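PT: before anyone asks, these are the final sequences, not the draft ones from last week. 851 residues across everything. Please model them as a single complex and drop the result in this thread when it's through.
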Amino acid sequence: MNQVALYSLTLWYGLKSKLTYRLSSVFELLGKFLEIFAQILIWVALLGSGARFDTTLSQMVTYLILTRVVSTLFATQAGNEISDKIDDGSIANDFVRPLNFKLYLLCNDLGNNFFKVLVVFLPIGVLAGLRYGFLLPQTAAQGAAFLVSLAFGALLTFYYSYILGLLSFWLIKNPFLRWHFRNVEQIFSGQFFPIWLYPAWLSAITEFLPFRYFTYEPLAIYLGKTPVSEIPRVLLIQAFWLVALYAVERILWRRACKKVLVQGG
Amino acid sequence: MKKTLAVLFLYMRVKAKGKYEYRAAFWLDALSFLFGYGAQTLLMVLLTQKFDTINGWTPFEVMLLYAYTLASYTLANALLSDVMWSLSRRIRTGDFDQTLTKPMKPLTYEIVTGFSPYYFLHFFLALGMVAIGVTQLHVTVTPLTILQIACGILGGACVQGGVLLLFASASFFWINNPLTGNFYTNIRPLIEYPISVYPKFFQVLLTTLIPLAFVSFYPVQQISGRQDFGLFPPVVRHLSLPVGIAFLLIAYAVFAAASKHYKSTGS
Amino acid sequence: MIEVAHVSKSFKIYKNTKDSKHKLRSLFAREYEIKRAVDDVSFTVGDGELVGYVGPNGAGKSTTIKMLSGILTPTAGEILVDGRIPYEQRQENAKHIGVVFGQRSQLYWDLPMTDTFRLHRRMYEIPEETYKRNVDLFIEVLQMGSFLNQPVRQLSLGQKMRANIAIALLHDPEIVFLDEPTIGLDIVAKSRIRDFVKEINRRKGTTFLLTTHDMDDIEQICGRLMLINHGRLGYDGSLAEFQARYGDPYRLYVTLQPGERPQHPHLQLLGAQEGRFTLGGSKAELPIGEAVSYLSTHYSVRDLRIEESSLESILKAMY
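LR: through. Structure below.
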């Protein structure tokens, strides 16, 4: 079977598998829906009827929805799956198959994620957009820069979630760890509270960490919060982090392969 | 009852003994705890520094909402988190059958062997936040205030516990119960903010069907003196404990009925 | 004493509709079929008996055990365990029975055995004297001393199994149900478990009901055998009688001088391959000894192997 067809089929099955879980999907989606619904309403209350601190309601609505869309669309469970398979040894089977296992998992995830975005964020995006206004990039240049930054951001989101998943293999499986770490991620990635509103000292700290470059930076460009002169610098740093994460992934992957070989698969 | 408590305390003692086999695990835990709550607090500070009020609620009132939610959540979780997270798996793998061979009510057994005293750490942190909030709001603290706070948090714990129990009950009917995953984790933050920002029907939902409004929104107003009850009479701010207990009893009845259903069909 | 009278247990098995037309309908009402896991089963087990309960996978063994221990309620029929109805008086019944599920452990993951013992003492409210006596006995007979203080997750399968059985017997139950207790264990471990069961039965008169796929378990422990297939009880009687009744056929694998061909009116030629012959006989018609002596006097026997009906082969034929 031709490669493209194979991976497209995987994507489609990823989408379809979500449909077959019926009620399970409903609750997962309902949870996400309520989460962003609340976030939007909280910001409506915060910003009142007008704008404050150079932030308008439609900006925030656009920001919240697009942040979610990007991080949902490009996050992957592949790392976790591979980590589990290494644990129980079944990964040996996957090495023998005639496809790139990682690519397969990615396509499967994309299918899943696309479904979530379609069912949750599209409707709420339309509703919120109609009610509070959804923004588009103001200039074509902004739009183009946004797309480049988005591509980087998407890859970064993917690699990050992938690496975390792989690491679950090495880390002691402590549920609290994940919970606490998620809070740290939230603060440094500007998921709920956009970084352009942060005090200078905090904003400075976030620049040393990769998180703000996942979804915040692309969206800041989109909404015109980043001056044009700054855009090349942002893109450069994104590229840097991408290279860094890629390197980390390579190292982890090699370690994982070694482990599988030692175990005798 | 005496037996249950005896088993529970013994279990806590022996579990505490073996908790940290590796030093590294302990420090990792402690650090993540600090950073995690540090980040949460930082977020609250950011919000409140930039914005004076949210729907009229001042920063420390919002902090109290968060603190009440957390305090009651950790209390409920100490008992029920394991039930919530592992019941579905235990039923699926057949481990739950073992529970049914023990001379204890199945829920009691699951609670006792799943008890997570670790949550008490979080609980004391939350209590600290309550203390901070109360002092910053310049509330005169009387024995009555203490009683009100205690009842509010206990009532909140009952409500959240009831929700956890209800969600867990579905495991007897649903092989891959989606309610016991991240669903509640996604919903809970909703009550960390004043629910008056949400549409009226949602406020009604949170007061009647799933009384999460009694966890933080209403009881905090006992202390802060705010009058923000939407469609409901002011008396709701005093009703956390009775509502909580009633809800918990209903949830327990549902759980008991569900587990009976399991017995006769063996899933 | 266990009394089972005309017990049946049916389950609803939900069907997964592949047809997308029916998928929408299946959102509201799923199609199902009824499966009879246990079908009109009756038996009585007296005090102190060692009973083997065998059958192929899906025959209804585990379902029966679950009904006897109060986990499941029968769809029809009655069960009395020492005068109690297990599924109605579950907690009371639990105090007098012990259950071991071979493929699942009921130990607490990160606790050492000593703590698990203490926990169970509290849970079953075992008197101090009984507790001490049993703990010492188990440690000795099961040779648990070496791993008593290690957390359960560090134990081998054999050690875990021994621990599981010890726990199940700690409160001196009158009746113990063992569901595949020796599965996955090596020969030494299996033998330890079997000896332990026999020892406890001898000392305390505990009744054991054992389900297993391992025929050696049955042959070494049980005096009585019950066979269940497709939910129905096929055989219920002593093991010896079962073997005598059904263990009649035997086979002889004999190698003769080239050119020779064995023949006997009571021996059936089942196979021949380059001088090696497979002969089938029946003990009732021609005892093995006579068959062997006949062959050795009439032919030049180069090699002879006797294969009697094992419990395994009998059951295989019956399944």
